[in-house]
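Allow me, if you will, to draw on your knowledge of protein folds for a short while. I have a record of one protein: its chain in single-letter code and its fold written as discrete structure tokens. The full record is reproduced below for your convenience:
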Amino acid sequence: MATIKFLHRSKKEKANLTLRFRHYQKIDSGQTLNFLIEIKTQERVDSKKWNENKEIRRRLEDIEEYILDDFKLKYVTSMTKEQISSFLISSYKEFIDDGGQSNDTLLLVDWMKKEREDLEISGMSYNRIRGVALSTSIVEQYNPFLEVSEVTNNEMASLRDWMVKNRKYALSTAEKVISDARSSCRLARSRGIRLADDFESYSKKSSRSRDKKNEVVIFLTQQELDSIDKLELTDHRLVNARKWLMLGCYTAQRGNDLLQYIVKGNFIETKQGLMIEFTQDKVGEHMRILALPKVEKLYVNNELPTKVFLHDLNKQVKVLCKMAKIDTPIKANLTEEIELPNKEVVHRKVLDTRPKHMYISSHDFRRTFCTLHFGELSNQDIMKFSGHRSEAQLMEYIGKKDHDFSSYKKLYGLE
């Protein structure tokens, strides 16, 4: 038998009710099922005599009837406590969506959605907007009824632990989601919503040392590029992908910028030679770069590659690298399918040793350019192509440390 009861558990004058669900059943095997589950609701009431208010009682009765009817239709004895908890959250949300939406704007996920809208209006980059959308969906899975005033240190620690232990996300990903959630809380505060007393004292759990330990700088060597260039190809898609690969490795552009801007219309003839002019999407950096010999040859011979989706290009690049026998064993993270404790299959980064060709994608073109030219040209000259705004950024990007003491040697006559 399933029952529902609503509880007021706050000392505040106004607070959201907690829904307590209890299910007790004896099944044929002789086993007894006894579940007690509580979820937070959006039903915000005054602490005094709320259960004597006829309008509130009528609404709570409607919620109870809706969820219990839904439970009768969908319940099977094999359901776990976690599955029933997810069902309750989903069923209550369906009730709200069917016409019971509260006018309160206190939910964290609502403010995260609002922040995403503001980012879109302000013209923020696609990746930033996509990142906030992903963080929102994760917080919604964690607790769709979490209020901004409940974003305490303990709550964020619970979210972090849930992501790392239950959902198998990297610690850095969990901290990024928490950062996005806290940013939305600040937006709510700017609109008059009060936050938790310890909101500003949150301490980020650093994952930098762990990430650095597992981080491998992957790029193509000149020999590997030559091997790809010499491949005899009959598949026009691989021929096209090789052209994009060469353009990427000799223009130092990110995948999206490469496909969108290294195109015929952006090549210009100047007194300094053939140039490519565009503005990078991610950081808004205006670029004018020299078309290096391999790039110029494709342009002059009217052999620039045709349009392709980035996802398809990344698949084709891996095929090219495998054909070129780029298979040095490398231990690094790669996204794979894994099974969570609840048997759900998800995609997560997994640290393992694999052939190098499995890691190569358009993301590595820019790093290949920077690494191949490092030490051959000045850092400033490399940055003219890559768009890095400081030498420190460039050095970190290619995994190098500055051990150049030539200026000291010159000053003290040690050369």
Summary: The radius of gyration is 28 Å. The first strand starts at residue 2 and ends at 7. The beta strands are 2-7, 14-26, 32-46, 267-270, 273-279, 286-290, 329-339, 345-355.
